[in-house]
Design a protein that fits this description.
The protein is 35% helix and 24% strand. β1 and β2 form a beta hairpin. The mean pLDDT is 93. The longest helix has 18 residues. By secondary structure, the protein is of the alpha+beta class. The protein has eleven helices and twelve strands. The protein folds into two domains: 146 residues, PurM-like, N-terminal domain (60s Ribosomal Protein L30, Chain: A), CATH 3.30.1330.10; 158 residues, Alpha-Beta Complex (Phosphoribosyl-aminoimidazole Synthetase, Chain A, domain 2). The chain has a six-stranded mixed β-sheet. The protein has a four-stranded mixed β-sheet with strand order 3-6-4-5.
Length: 336
C-alpha cells in the first residue's frame, strides 16, 4: 500500500484516480477527492434529477463491448433529461464490479463513458465503486437544468393536442432478439446492414437531447420511451387524464423493422411494447406543431405526428388500418 499525504491509499482510491478522475472535469466535482460534489444552477433555474440502473443479463449482455455498456448506462438517463426539456449538468456513477472484470475492461469502460460525458456536456461529479459476485451493475444519477417551472411533465396533455414521437420505434426490441439469436435475422430475411442496424439500436441508444429545448418550449407533456411506446404513452395519458388515438400506419419504423414485420406480422406487438427505444413521445398543441417540427429538422432529429389526444375513452388506443383498436398481450416491458 502506498502513502499519500501521510494516509494509506486503497485499491479503490487507485481505481478511481486512474479511470474516473479524468472524467471529473467540472470544478464542482472537486477532483473526486471529497465525499460529495456541488452543482450551482444559474439563477432562476431548477435542477432536474433522474436515476436509472443497468444490470448485466437484464439490460445488456455481459460480453457486450464495455465502452458501449458505459455509453448505454449514461444515455438511458440522458434520454429522460431530454424528455423533460433539461440540459445535462452532470452525473453520479455507482459501479458494482464482478472480480472477473480487470483493468482492460475498466479502461475501455471509462473511455466510452468519458467520450459521452464530453459529447453531451455531462461531466462525472462523483459516485461509488464496489465489488460484487455478480452480475455487473451500473447505476447513474443524472442532473439537468431548466428555467424554473418549465420542466416538461408527463401530466399536461390536453384534448386536441397532437401526439408526436422522435426517431423510429421497435428497433431495439427487435435488435435484442437478433442479439440473442442471430438466426432470427435470416428468418426475418434481413440483410447484413438491416441486422446491424437493429442490433446497434439495442446496444447504443440515441438520446434526443438536441430537441430538449424545443420540447420545453412547445410540448404540453412528454416522456422517454423506455418500456415500449404503447405502455409509456398509456402512462402519459393516465396521469394527464386523457386518451390518445394512434394510427399504427403512421408510427415510424425503420427499413429493418418493416422488413422484419413483413416476415412475421406478430413482431408488430414486440415493436410497440418491447421497450429500449429511448425515443421521446410528446403531445403538442396543433398551433405549435409546425414550430416543433421545424426545430426538430434544424436539430437533425426525425419527428413524426402519429395521433391525437382525446377526452373520451381513457388510455392509449392503437388503431389498425381499418380503424379498429389493436389488442396487446402486454402493453409494455416491466421488471416485475
Amino acid at each position: 500500500m502506498t502513502e499519500r499525504e501521510g494516509w494509506p491509499v486503497s485499491g479503490e482510491d487507485r481505481l478511481i484516480a486512474r479511470y474516473f478522475r479524468p472524467l471529473a472535469t467540472d470544478p464542482g466535482a472537486l477532483g473526486l477527492l471529497d465525499d460529495a460534489a456541488t452543482i450551482t444552477p444559474p439563477p432562476g433555474s431548477d435542477v432536474v434529477l433522474k436515476t436509472d440502473a443497468v444490470v448485466g443479463g437484464v439490460h445488456f449482455f455481459p460480453d457486450d463491448p464495455p465502452d458501449l455498456i458505459a455509453k448505454k448506462a449514461l444515455r438511458v438517463n440522458l434520454s429522460d433529461l431530454a424528455a423533460k426539456g433539461a440540459s445535462p449538468a452532470g452525473f453520479l456513477l455507482s459501479l458494482a464490479l464482478p472480480p472477473a472484470l480487470g483493468g482492460d475492461w475498466l479502461e475501455a469502460f471509462a473511455r466510452g463513458l468519458g467520450e459521452d460525458a464530453g459529447a453531451y456536456h455531462c461531466p462525472l461529479m462523483g459516485g461509488d465503486t464496489d465489488r460484487t459476485p455478480g452480475p455487473l451493475c451500473i447505476s447513474i444519477a443524472a442532473f439537468g437544468i431548466v428555467p424554473s417551472g418549465t420542466m416538461v411533465r408527463r401530466r399536461g396533455a390536453r384534448p386536441g393536442d397532437l401526439v408526436v414521437v422522435t426517431g423510429t420505434i421497435g428497433d431495439a426490441a427487435l435488435g435484442l432478439h437478433v442479439r440473442g439469436d442471430p438466426g432470427m435475422a435470416t428468418r426475418w430475411r434481413l440483410d447484413e446492414r438491416q441486422r446491424d442496424h437493429l442490433v446497434g439500436r439495442y446496444l447504443l441508444p440515441q438520446p434526443r437531447n438536441a430537441l430538449a429545448e424545443a420540447l420545453r418550449l412547445h410540448a404540453t407533456a412528454a416522456m422517454d420511451v423506455s418500456d415500449g411506446l404503447a405502455g409509456d404513452l398509456g402512462k402519459l395519458c393516465a396521469v394527464s387524464g386523457v386518451a390518445a388515438d394512434i394510427e399504427v400506419a403512421r408510427v415510424p419504423l425503420s427499413d429493418a423493422a418493416r422488413k422484419a414485420v413483413a416476415a412475421d406480422r406478430a413482431l408488430i406487438e414486440i415493436a410497440f411494447t418491447g421497450g429500449d427505444d429511448y425515443e421521446v413521445v410528446a403531445t403538442v398543441p396543433a398551433q405549435a406543431r409546425d414550430a416543433l417540427m421545424a426545430a426538430a429538422q434544424a436539430a437533425g432529429v426525425a419527428l413524426t405526428e402519429i395521433g391525437v389526444v382525446r377526452s373520451d375513452r381513457p388510455g392509449a388506443h392503437f388503431l389498425d388500418h381499418g380503424g379498429k383498436p389493436m389488442e396487446f398481450k402486454k402493453a409494455s416491458f416491466s421488471h416485475f
